[in-house]
Amino acid sequence: MNVQFINPFLDSFLNVIGTMATITLTPGKPMLKEDELAKGDVSGLIGMVGEQAKGSLSLTFEKRLALKVMENMLGEAPNSIDEEVTDMVGELTNMVSGGAKKSLGEQGFEFDMATPVVVAGPEHHISHVSSGKKIIIPFNSLYGRAFIEICFEE
Amino acid sequence: MNVQFINPFLDSFLNVIGTMATITLTPGKPMLKEDELAKGDVSGLIGMVGEQAKGSLSLTFEKRLALKVMENMLGEAPNSIDEEVTDMVGELTNMVSGGAKKSLGEQGFEFDMATPVVVAGPEHHISHVSSGKKIIIPFNSLYGRAFIEICFEE
Predict the structure, then answer these.
(1) What is the pLDDT of residues B92-113, one digit of tens each?
(2) Is A46's Cβ below 8 Å from some Cβ in B?
(3) Is A82 on the interface with B (CB under 8 A)?
(4) Which residue numbers delimit the Chemotaxis phosphatase CheX-like domain (chains A, B) (predicted)?
(5) Which of B48, B150, B151 is nearest to B109 (CA)?
(6) Which residues of B touch A121 (CB under 8 A)?
(7) In Å, how far is A24's CA from the nearest CA of chain B?
(8) A·B CB contacts under 8 A
(9) Least CB–CB distance from B117: residue in A83, A123, A128
(10) Rounded Cα gap, residues B71 and B17, in angstroms
(11) Chain A partners of B47 at a C-beta cutoff of 8 Å?
(12) Cα angle for residues B76, B79, B83 (degrees, 5° grid)
């Protein structure tokens, strides 16, 4: 996977969470996912299909951070990951992938997105099944961690 | 979502599990997913993008059934959902969606598939985020339950 694919997702995630929830995420170093695992409590996943490549994106949040994003966006948040929270994570997934799609399209790399799927469950982990490289980017915040994982195969 | 989209996924799932793992799954009635939730311990998810529609598919297995599929396919199985099991669920997801794609293509409904993503975690649940109808099909077996969920939006 070309490194030029990574930054649009990273930038779009920082932008969406910063703008919508006024939460500053601090990105760690992007890593090739080998033994590294993103663990979290709620994840948004979306498939991407283009002429040049196809792949998948996941955004994984620890529960505390997901609830804080919800609180900042809507003024209040439930105590647990309920349907309102999974809907919000689905929308964030659309927004992050949409932002990256726009930016990558300007670089001549076009793809279409499938519809998002959200997974909720304590400490689940995600495996992207692909022959392509898997990139994981950890993010820290005052309210817990998040992870982006991106995988494209050509 | 047109009902003609459902049977190819159902048939493909029965066929893949029957052929690869010699396990007979008994399908329940397909239902519109409203309050109904598929809960399981390992799920394969894949995005689909076509000119007429886009959507998502998930296959969710209870742990005992996933390990039995593994044992029947490979002669042995671990005690927990490890990387070998998630890889197998990713492959099954490719096979089931590939079978349905072939069958739907013969009916003039073409789509491309993204790469699959597998989620592992005890009793997680899945939400397909889409304006389209969500269909859930439960399956019973001697070794536990599985669920297909399909969602397309036009």
Answers:
(1) 999 999 999 999 999 988 999 9
(2) yes
(3) no
(4) 42-140
(5) B48
(6) 119, 121-125
(7) 26
(8) 139
(9) A128
(10) 12
(11) 45-49, 56, 113-115, 117
(12) 80
Which among A86, A114, A119 has CB closest to B119?
Answer: A119
- pLDDT above 60 (res A1): no
Residues A87 and A47: their CA atoms lie apart, in Å, by 17
Q: What angle do CA A62, A64, A69 make, to 5 degrees?
A: 95
Cβ pair B49:A125 closer than 8 A: no
Chain A within 8 Å of B112 (Cβ-Cβ)?
yes
Domains of chain A, by residue range, sit at 3-21+32-42+53-153
The CATH code of domain B3-153 reads: 3.40.1550.10
The 8-class DSSP code of residue A107 comes to T
Quickly list DSSP for A111-123. -EE---EEEEEEE
Give A36's pLDDT tier (boundaries 50, 70, 90).
low
Instruction: Kindly provide the ipTM of the predicted complex, given to two decimals.
Output: 0.91
A79, with CB counted inside 10 A (0-12, 13-18, 19+), is exposed
> To the nearest whole angstrom, how far is the Cα of B61 from the nearest Cα of chain A?
14
Task: Give B23's contacts (C-beta < 8 A, 6+ positions apart).
Answer: B17, B65, B68, B69, B72, B141, B142, B143
Tell me the pLDDT tens digit for each residue of A46-96. 999 998 889 999 999 999 999 999 999 999 989 999 999 999 999 999 999
Q: Name, in order, each residue with C-beta under 8 angstroms of B13's C-beta and a sequence gap of 6 or more.
A: B25, B59, B96, B139, B146, B148
Give percent of chain A with pLDDT exceeding 90.
77
Query: Please, are residues A22 and A114 in contact by the beta-carbon 8 Å criterion?
Result: no
Q: Does the domain formed by A3-21+32-42+53-153 have CATH 3.40.1550.10? A: yes
Higher pLDDT, B36 or B94: B94
Of A73, A96, A95, the closest CA to residue A85 belongs to A73
